[in-house]
Specification:
alpha+beta, three-stranded antiparallel β-sheet, 6 helices, 8 strands, 26% helix
Amino acid sequence: MQFHYKEYHDVLSVECPPKSYKPEETRAYRWVSDDIENSNNFIPQYHKNPRRFNDKSDHKKCVAMSLSLYKDVGSAVERFVFFKEEQGMGERAFRILGRCIAEGIFNENDGVNEREKSGEPIEMGHFSHHPVLDYDYAKKFKIIASFI
């Protein structure tokens, strides 16, 4: 499997993506803008602002090079509310995180997913996904809900 961002993975001192990440067919949910074709919808956090990760470990950089996804709508909404209200993002959450939730289905050829940490279920319904080289998730995802 040839991964998108491989040239960034290759300079890390850790295996990225980790071998524990597995290809699988799975339904996933992601925060997106109100335009599914917006190019920022499926860009990992690292690639939105690499300098933000200069002082982070290579492990954290690798995680930031993956797409953040949720296993169900409830987990996606709960985590959005956490960032907006408890982390103090307020109205900036809509601009930074998105205004909508999109649902998509990955097949085994789309990349690899983190599904467990040390045998424990993924925390807060969140999981990481490292996409393959030629992915177009705007075609795989559809907006299903709006936060406003």
